[in-house]
Design a protein that fits this description.
Largest sheet of chain A: 5 strands, mixed, barrel
Number of domains of chain A: 2
Strand content of chain A: 15-25%
Number of helices of chain D: 6
Shape of chain A: elongated
CATH superfamily of the largest domain in chain A: Nucleic acid-binding proteins
Oligomer: heterotetramer
Number of strands of chain D: 0
CATH class of the largest domain in chain A: Mainly Beta
Number of helices of chain A: 3
Chains: A alpha+beta (about 170), B mainly alpha (about 220), C alpha/beta (about 220), D mainly alpha (about 240)
CATH topology of chain D: Four Helix Bundle (Hemerythrin (Met), subunit A)
Number of strands of chain A: 5
Radius of gyration of chain D: 22 Å
Shape of chain D: globular
Chain lengths: ~170, ~220, ~220, ~240
C-alpha cells in the first residue's frame, strides 16, 4: 500500500512541475497586454497586445503588408503601425493580438506579426477534462486492487486453488 | 434435408400460433396506429412539411412496432419453458434462427403493408409510380431489422429487465438501417431517379448479408450453454 | 456402457456454490433416484446433464460422449422431462407432438402417434389447444412426446407431481420400458415410495454434495 | 492464484512507468515546446489530448472484440474478465474523447456539437458500450453473462464500420464536410508530440487493462472463496 501511494506521489510531483512550467511559459511568451497597460508602462522589450481594430481608422496597403490603424482597449486607444507579412485577419472591428515593440518617441506601436486570439480556457479545459478523470479512475482502480490483495491475504481465505478441499461427508 | 425442414417447422409453428391468437400482429398494428396519431398531433403538418418529415415518421413507426414484435417473438417461448426445449433439441440452432427471422419478417412486413396505405391517406402521399421500389426498400430494411433483432430478442429474453434491454441494445446497432431506409424512402417518395438513392439500397443489402451471417453464427452461442 | 457419468461437477452462481464436486454414475438399464430438500441443487444437476448449463468445473459423459464437446450428439440421445412441459399454448396437442418430433429429426406414422396419445388418454383432446389443458393433461402430453422420442437417457425432474394415479402408472410403465430397452434414467423426486418401486440406486443431494443411500432406507427415512 | 495473474503482477509496473514517462514528455512537448498551428493557433494543442483518446478508445474496442472471440472459443473466465475491463475502459476513453472533441469544436467550429460523421459514430460506439455494460449487470449466471456479453461485443464491432460509412454518406448528402481535418497535412513539429501522446495513451490503456482485469479477477476470487466458506458452514450445520 505504501509503495502504491509513493508511486502516485511521484506522479503528482511530476504533473505539478509540468503545470508550473506550462503556466510560466504562458506568462512569459504568450500573455498579452491591454493598450492601457502599454500606454501606462511604456515597455521597451517585445510584447503582445490584444485589442479591437477601431472602425474607420484602418488604412494602408494590406497586400504589401503595410497598414496603420488604432487598436482600442477598454478606455484608451493605441496608434499602430504594422509592417510584416500580408495579414489575413486584419479587418475593422476585429479583435487581434499584435506582436511588436512600443516606440516611445513616436508614441506608436510598431507591430511585426499578427496572431489569432487564443483562448487558453478551451485548451486547459480539454486537458483537465481529458486527464483528471483518467487519473482518478486509475487511482481508485489501483487502490481497489491493493485493498483486494490485502483482504485476500489477511483473511483465512487465502489458499491456493488446489488446497481448497471441500469435505463432502 | 433436415436443415430446411427445421426452418419450415419453425416458421410454421410461429405462423399457426399467430393465426390462432393474433396477439403479436394486432398489438403491433395498434401500437403503430397510436404512433402515427401522436406524430400527427406533435407536428402540424402542411404538404411541404409532410414531404420532409414523412420518411422519418414512417420508419420511426415501423422500427418501434418492429421492436414490439421482436420482443414478443421469444417471450412467447418462455411459456412452459419452450425456450429450454429449443435449446436442448439436437436440431441446428442456425436453422432455428433463420426460421425465426423469417417469421418475424413476415409479421413485420404484414403490419407495414397494412399501415402504409394509412400513411398514404393521412399524409396525402403520391406513391403509385414508386410502389415497387418502396416495397423493395421495406423488404430490405425490415429484413435487416429482423436479422439483428431476432438475435437480440433471443438474448434479452434470457436476462432480467428484458423489455428495457432489447431497445437499448438494438437501436444503436440498427442506425445504418434507419439512415438508409429513411433516405431511400425519401428519395422514392420525392420521385427522384433511382440512381440518386441506389447506394442506400446497396448499403441495406450489405448490412443484411453481413448481419445474417454473423447472427447466424452467434445464435449458436446465444441459445447454447 | 455407462448411461450417465458425471465427474466432479461443480456449479457456482456468483457467491453461491450450488453443486460441489458431484460424482455420479448411472449404468444402462439402471434407474437412479435423486432426493434432497428444496434448493439442494437437484434441478441444477439435471439441467447440467441435459446440456442446458455448463458446469463451472468438472465434466460429464452421456453414453460415453462428452456432454460439452459433443453436445449435439448427446442431445439426440437424451430427454429432460421438467416442470415446464415444453408445450406451445396456441398449438393443439397433435401439432405440439409433430413439432417436437420434427425438431428431433423423427417422422413417425400417424397411427403410431395416435396410439401413444390414446395410451396417455388424451387422444380425445388431440385437436384442442394446449391453452385449455389442465396441468395434469399437459404433463401427460409431455409424457407422450417423451414416449414417441424414445430417448436412451431419460432425465426426470419431479415426474410424479401433478399426475393422477393412472398417470403415474403410465409413467412407471414408460420408465420400465426405457430401462428394458437398455436406457438410463435419472430422476429427482420427493416421492420416495414411488421412486423405490423403479429405482435400483438412490442418492441424497444436500447443499450441493451427493451421498448415496441404501434403497431399503427409502421406506423408513425421510430425505427431503 | 492464477499463473497469468501472477505474471501480470510482476510486469504491469513497466507499462505504468512507460505510460507515465511517455505522457509527461508528450505533455511537455504538446503544451510547451511545440509551435501553434498556422490555421488554428494555440487551440490546436487540444489535438494532442483528443486524438490519442479517440485512438485508444478504438484500440480498447478492438481488444474487447479480440477477447470476445477468444472467450467464445476457449471459455476462459480470465479472458472474460479482460473483456469486461476493456469494455469499461473503452467507455471511459470514448466519453473523454467526445468531451474533449466538444471542447475543441467550440473555438474551431463555433459550436459544441455537430452531427459530424466521426462524432456520430463515436456516440453510437458509446451507446453500444453502455448497452454492453448494462447487459452485464442484468445476468446472474457468470457463464451466461460472459457468453452474452461476448456476442454483443462481436456484433457491435462488426456494426461499427457500417455505422461509420452510413453516417458519412448521410452527412455528405446533407452538407459538405466543412469540418473535416483531412487534407490538412500535419507538419512534423505537430506530429511528434501527437505520436508521443498516442504511444503514451496506448501504454496507459494497457496498464489500466492489466490493473482492471486483476481487479475483476480478484473480486470474483473473493466471491468464490466466500461462497465456498459459506457452503462449508451450511454443510457442517446440516450434518451435525
Amino acid at each position: 500500500m505504501t509503495a502504491f501511494y509513493l508511486r502516485w506521489g511521484i506522479l503528482v510531483v511530476g504533473a505539478t512541475i509540468l503545470v508550473v512550467l506550462t503556466y510560466r511559459n504562458y506568462e512569459e511568451n504568450l500573455a498579452t497586454m491591454t493598450p492601457e497597460q502599454v500606454l501606462a508602462n511604456s515597455p521597451t522589450e517585445e510584447i503582445r497586445v490584444k485589442g479591437l481594430v477601431r472602425g474607420g481608422t484602418l488604412r494602408g496597403e494590406l497586400e504589401e503588408g503595410r497598414a496603420s490603424f488604432d487598436l482600442a482597449g477598454e478606455k484608451d486607444t493605441l496608434p499602430v503601425q504594422y509592417e510584416g507579412p500580408p495579414p489575413e485577419n486584419l479587418r475593422e472591428l476585429k479583435t487581434l493580438i499584435l506582436i511588436g515593440k512600443w516606440k516611445t518617441p513616436t508614441r506608436t506601436f510598431q507591430a511585426r506579426e499578427m496572431a489569432l486570439v487564443t483562448n487558453y480556457g478551451f485548451v486547459m479545459g480539454a486537458y483537465i477534462v481529458g486527464l483528471i478523470p483518467l487519473a482518478l479512475f486509475l487511482f481508485f482502480m489501483g487502490r481497489k486492487v491493493c485493498l483486494l490483495y490485502d483482504e485476500i491475504k489477511q483473511s483465512t481465505l487465502y489458499q491456493s486453488e488446489s488446497d481448497t478441499h471441500v469435505d463432502s461427508r | 434435408m433436415t436443415f430446411l425442414k427445421v426452418i419450415r417447422w419453425m416458421v410454421w409453428k410461429d405462423l399457426i400460433s399467430e393465426v390462432r391468437s393474433r396477439e403479436t400482429i394486432s398489438s403491433m398494428f395498434f401500437f403503430a396506429l397510436i404512433v402515427i396519431l401522436v406524430f400527427s398531433f406533435s407536428f402540424s403538418m402542411d404538404q411541404q412539411a409532410a414531404r420532409e418529415l414523412i420518411a422519418g415518421i414512417i420508419w420511426v413507426a415501423f422500427v418501434f412496432t418492429g421492436i414490439i414484435g421482436l420482443g414478443r417473438s421469444f417471450s412467447v417461448e418462455l411459456q412452459n419453458d419452450c425456450l429450454e426445449f429449443l435449446q436442448m433439441s439436437p436440431a441446428s440452432k442456425g436453422a432455428m434462427y433463420l426460421g425465426k427471422v423469417m417469421a418475424n419478417l413476415i409479421f413485420m412486413l404484414t403490419v407495414e403493408i397494412i399501415l402504409f396505405p394509412m400513411f398514404v391517406i393521412f399524409f396525402n402521399l403520391d406513391v403509385i409510380e414508386e410502389i415497387h421500389i418502396l416495397l423493395l426498400i421495406f423488404f430490405l430494411a425490415t429484413f435487416g431489422l429482423s436479422a439483428v433483432g431476432t438475435l437480440f430478442s433471443a438474448l434479452t429474453v434470457q436476462i432480467r429487465a428484458r423489455e428495457v434491454m432489447l431497445p437499448i441494445l438494438l437501436l444503436p446497432l440498427v442506425v445504418p438501417v434507419m439512415i438508409a431506409a429513411v433516405e431511400a424512402t425519401k428519395g422514392a417518395l420525392n420521385g427522384d431517379p433511382l440512381a440518386g438513392y441506389w447506394q442506400w439500397l446497396e448499403l441495406l443489402a450489405i448490412f443484411n448479408v453481413v448481419f445474417t451471417v454473423v447472427s447466424f453464427w452467434m445464435f449458436e452461442f446465444v441459445m447454447d450453454s | 456402457m455407462i448411461a450417465i457419468s458425471g465427474q466432479e461437477i461443480s456449479k457456482t452462481y456468483g457467491y453461491y456454490q450450488v453443486l460441489r464436486e458431484v460424482n455420479l454414475e448411472v449404468g444402462c438399464g439402471e434407474c437412479y433416484a435423486l432426493f434432497g430438500p428444496n434448493g439442494a441443487g437437484k434441478t441444477t444437476l439435471l439441467r447440467i446433464l441435459a446440456t442446458l448449463q455448463r458446469p463451472t468445473t468438472g465434466r460429464f459423459e452421456i453414453l460415453g460422449r462428452d456432454g460439452v464437446k459433443e453436445r449435439d450428439t448427446v442431445r439426440a440421445t437424451l430427454l429432460l422431462l421438467a416442470h415446464g412441459c415444453h408445450l406451445y399454448e396456441d398449438l393443439n396437442a397433435w401439432e405440439n407432438v409433430q413439432f417436437a418430433l420434427a425438431l428431433r429429426g423423427l417422422s413417425l406414422a400417424q397411427r403410431q402417434v395416435k396410439a401413444v396419445l390414446d395410451r396417455v388418454a388424451i387422444g380425445a383432446f388431440a385437436d384442442m389447444k394446449v391453452r385449455f389443458f389442465s396441468a395434469g393433461m399437459k404433463k401427460r402430453l409431455a409424457l407422450a412426446k417423451a414416449m414417441l422420442a424414445q430417448p436412451k437417457v431419460l432425465l426426470l425432474d419431479e415426474p410424479f407431481s401433478t399426475l393422477d394415479k393412472a398417470g403415474i402408472e403410465i409413467l412407471k410403465q414408460f420408465i420400465l420400458e426405457t430401462l428394458a430397452r437398455g436406457g438410463g434414467v435419472l430422476m429427482a423426486t420427493h416421492n420416495q415410495e414411488k421412486a423405490a418401486e423403479v429405482a435400483k440406486r438412490a442418492g441424497v443431494l444436500s447443499h450441493g454434495a451427493l451421498k448415496p443411500v441404501p434403497l431399503q432406507d427409502l421406506k423408513t427415512h425421510d430425505f427431503s | 492464484m492464477n499463473k497469468v495473474i501472477r505474471r501480470i503482477q510482476r510486469y504491469q509496473g513497466w507499462f505504468g512507468a512507460g505510460a507515465a514517462g511517455c505522457l509527461l514528455v508528450g505533455l511537455y512537448l504538446g503544451l510547451i515546446a511545440s509551435p501553434p498551428d498556422y490555421y488554428q493557433g494555440e487551440v490546436v494543442r487540444i489535438m494532442y489530448i483528443h486524438v490519442p483518446l479517440a485512438h485508444t478508445s478504438l484500440l480498447a474496442y478492438t481488444v474487447l472484440f479480440g477477447g470476445s472471440v477468444w472467450y467464445l472459443w476457449k471459455r476462459d473466465p480470465l479472458v472474460d474478465n479482460m473483456c469486461h475491463a476493456a469494455a469499461g475502459l473503452s467507455a471511459v476513453f470514448t466519453s473523454l474523447a467526445l468531451f474533449t472533441g466538444m471542447i475543441w469544436g467550440k473555438p474551431t467550429w463555433n459550436t459544441w456539437w455537430t452531427w459530424d460523421a466521426r462524432l456520430t459514430s463515436f456516440t453510437v460506439l458509446l451507446l453500444i458500450l453502455i448497452g454492453y455494460l448494462m447487459l452485464r449487470t442484468f445476468i446472474d449466471d457468470p457463464e451466461r453473462e460472459a457468453r452474452f456479453a461476448a456476442v454483443v461485443a462481436i456484433i457491435g464491432f462488426v456494426d461499427l464500420p457500417i455505422v461509420h460509412f452510413s453516417v458519412e454518406w448521410w452527412r455528405t448528402l446533407h452538407q459538405p464536410q466543412s469540418f473535416s481535418l483531412r487534407g490538412v497535412s500535419i507538419s512534423s513539429d505537430l506530429l511528434f508530440p501527437l505520436i508521443m501522446m498516442s504511444i503514451g495513451m496506448s501504454l496507459l490503456f494497457t496498464y489500466m487493462l492489466l490493473v482492471r482485469t486483476q481487479m475483476l479477477y480478484l473480486t470474483n476470487l473473493l466471491h468464490a472463496k466466500k461462497g465456498r466458506l459459506l457452503g462449508q458452514f451450511h454443510l457442517s450445520k446440516a450434518d451435525s
